[in-house]
Amino acid sequence: MINPSIPLSRYQLQSPEGTVSGDLLINAQGLLQYEVKFRGTPVVGLSDLGVLVDGQHLGYGVKAEAPVYSEVDETYPVRGVHAVADNRCRVMQVAVTHKGSGIKYMVEARAYEDGFAIRYVLPDRGTVTIQGEASSWKLPAQADVWFFERNNGWKLKSYAGEWIRAGAGELHTVSSQGPVQGSPLVVELPEERGYAVICEAALYNYSGMRLEAVGDCTVKANFTEGQEGFRLTGEVVTPWRVTLLSPDLNGLVNSDLLTNLNPPPDPALFPEQSYIRSGRSVWRWWSRGTGSFEEEKAMIDHAEALGYEFTTVDEGWELWDHKWATLKLLTDYASSKGIGVFVWKRSKEMNDPTDQYRVMRDFMDRVKAVGAAGLKIDFIDCEDFVSIAFETAALRIAAERKLMVNFHGISKPTGESRTYPNEISREGIRGLELNKMKEGPIPAWHNAALPFTRFLTGHGDYTPIGFSNPGDTTFAHQLATGILFTSPLQVIAEHPEYLLHELSCRQALDLIKELPTIWDETIVLDMSRIGALAAMARRKGEVWYVAVLNGIAEPVEIASEELLFLVSDKSYRAVILSDADHASLTREETALESGAHRLKIRMLPNGGYVAVLRPAGELST
After folding, report:
1. Residue 28, H or E segment
2. 455 DSSP assignment
3. Using CB atoms within 10 A of its CB, is residue 140 exposed (0-12), middle (13-18) or buried (19+)?
4. Confidence (pTM)
């Protein structure tokens, strides 16, 4: 008798340096499976693969041809955690035939030093219905998994849940909302062997993947449409099914795996990118609601006073008298001061694919004509095929008009910002707007988890720094979020009048004015623990910014943190902003002499800490 657990075919792919390996297998029953090892240790056990198309399970009853191998080795610019991405991997392509239907398709795998990814490429067979996937991940039995939770129907609409942890074996029963979780899932591997992140990359012309916990420490691809599926025409290229791997949090934060798996921007769509600018935005909605023309005009003056690049005009501007003429007056005034304007729009008023999204094209034509810099497109609240098609169309149509896009009410990023660099940020995160809602406020432990969970998939418009409504967190905690949370467009929640004139902000005003939004280098400090302590050093030019979030309701003191990232034979001037009490800051200015680069870090419960380190002799901006 043939043992079905013994593979008839096994094809292995290793990363260039051998850190990661993945095996593609076909067992005696013709079941397509895979497994992944990291540093020689299994991290994804034997797990099923395959796509369900028109009632056919294309991962069952298959045979395969010999694989074809190749390599990728390139670098490209990125915005956010650091300036340059390194895309280096080995590629394996295996032609697979489903014996029952005769359908021949390609399974493509890539092995990087920091992860393993698989996708399916199905030939053009006209219009087909994708009814799901068998793609799954069997996790180690003793692993813990971080996932976001929200105990209402919004959980999988806007991805605005709080990050919590459960055992891998509990995932199918732990949530009141059922066994389906959003991605990413962040896995703490047993015996402190590192981390695995389960997610997807390059989500185009497909439905967004959620992850269903099916028991036995296994999660499986799940889609909004369920068994009814979604219809595709032409060649089908699925998103990548990704396992990101790292021995530490620094490797997770600095991974470029998701953008690496996305194609570069189309030079015909992006012949030049000078209109795509990072920067800070003032925003009236969080503190006082969208204003009248005169009130929003005052926000432009405040942006100029802060040295910010943008203002965001949120929901409500369309109620102005002569809205387009009035918006043109506003953007003209902003332009005279070098300020760009982001204009809010409800997605459902543009999500009509008729005549190649004629309604959206007409609206963006008017936005471009009045001189706006970009759009804030809100309330998508779904990741089904129709919604993903809309998002991609919005990015393309905006790029044709040289407009940037900030998505809100949206699911996770999957590396789209490489292919569409005009996506300057997106929400898909439980951000500071929750402090205005009955579900709020945001707990400190959620903030201390975010850099190592949601932000691993890409930029996030959390809208940081809310001193006037900080919940249980301190002012120093709020200040640190502006450094730790990555978003090329950093929309500051607090009203600029508060920042400019409130005595409690005076100690930090120079930092608030100079706050970078993209970084040349990021280092996660060893003290970091998901949900308990988030600590990073981030470099812009020669200036280092150290930021720490205390996620626990107890004081934390680190007597002497050695700053190994500083140039050892240089002296630095340090400006330190730390907790005085819940609603005030202590400012200290000191010298760090060469060979003595250490900081003492003290934080209150749910507190924070920020230090700005400049080479001695360099003036602050």
Report:
1. none
2. G
3. buried
4. 0.97
